[in-house]
Write a structure and sequence with these properties.
It is a single chain. With about 170 residues, the protein is α+β, with helices and mostly antiparallel strands. The protein has 2 domains: about 5-80, Ubiquitin-like (UB roll) (Roll); about 85-165, Orthogonal Bundle (DNA polymerase, domain 1). About 30% of the residues lie in helices and about 15% in strands. The chain has 5 helices and 5 strands; from the N terminus they run ββαβββαααα. It has helices at about 30-35, 90-95, 105-120, 125-135, 145-155; strands spanning about 5-15, 15-20, 55, 60, 75. A 5-stranded mixed β-sheet has the order 2-1-5-3-4, sandwiched between helices. Strand 1 (about 5-15) and strand 2 form a beta hairpin. It is elongated and about 55 Å long. Bound molecules: FE2/S2 (inorganic) cluster (2 copies). One FE2/S2 (inorganic) cluster binds near residues 42, 43, 44 and 45.
Length: about 170
């Protein structure tokens, strides 16, 4: 069978449009990483571990299982859109303050997912937070208690989690 030619696409990522050229069926994760947005990571590749989580129109999505051409004009937010190395977003700041990671591999996906939760539910209770993370995210280092401490501190403070979503990419 003759392979289909790559298709040029425009994606709306972190508040700006980028151009990508991908083979049909290429996961969004691969397209983002090829475009230099390497904060979104590859783990299981099957939608189970959560390290590749991005927000699509504010909803957490496993970018490893979403074909790039299915994104259309939806707004994609990656970890780079939540802050920068110089100016961390509120969720990132809380994680840094509380050293809420060990190896750190899972953390970008968790920060993106929590940002999505807090944007729709600014004051989630513990059960909602656990349910939100439990159904999508695996931390093999077992940093869960520190992650929850960081979320508790964020919710106890005045920072607005949603404010980080408009931050610059990097
Ligand atoms: S790499 Fe996408 S969910 Fe694991
Ligand atoms: S901090 Fe290592 S997998 Fe979560």
């Amino acid at each position: 069978m003759t392979p289909r030619p790559p298709i040029p696409l425009a994606l709306q990522v972190n508040g700006r449009w980028i151009s990508v050229t991908v083979a049909q069926g290429t996961p969004l994760l691969a397209a983002l990483r090829a475009a230099g947005l390497t904060g979104t990571r590859f783990g299981c590749g099957e939608g189970h571990c959560g390290v590749c989580t991005v927000l699509v129109n504010g909803r957490p999505v496993a970018s490893c299982t979403l074909a790039t051409e299915q994104v259309g004009s939806a707004e994609i937010t990656t970890i780079e859109g939540l802050g920068s190395a110089d100016v961390a977003g509120p969720v990132q700041s809380a994680f840094l303050d509380h050293q809420a990671a060990q190896c750190g591999y899972c953390i970008n996906g968790i920060i993106v997912a929590l940002t999505g939760l807090l944007a729709r539910r600014p004051r989630p209770d513990r059960a909602e937070i656990l349910a939100w993370l439990d159904e999508r995210h695996i931390c093999r280092c077992g940093a869960h208690l520190r992650i929850l401490r960081a979320v508790d501190a964020l919710l106890a403070g005045d920072a607005s989690p949603a404010a980080g979503m408009a931050g610059p990419g990097q």
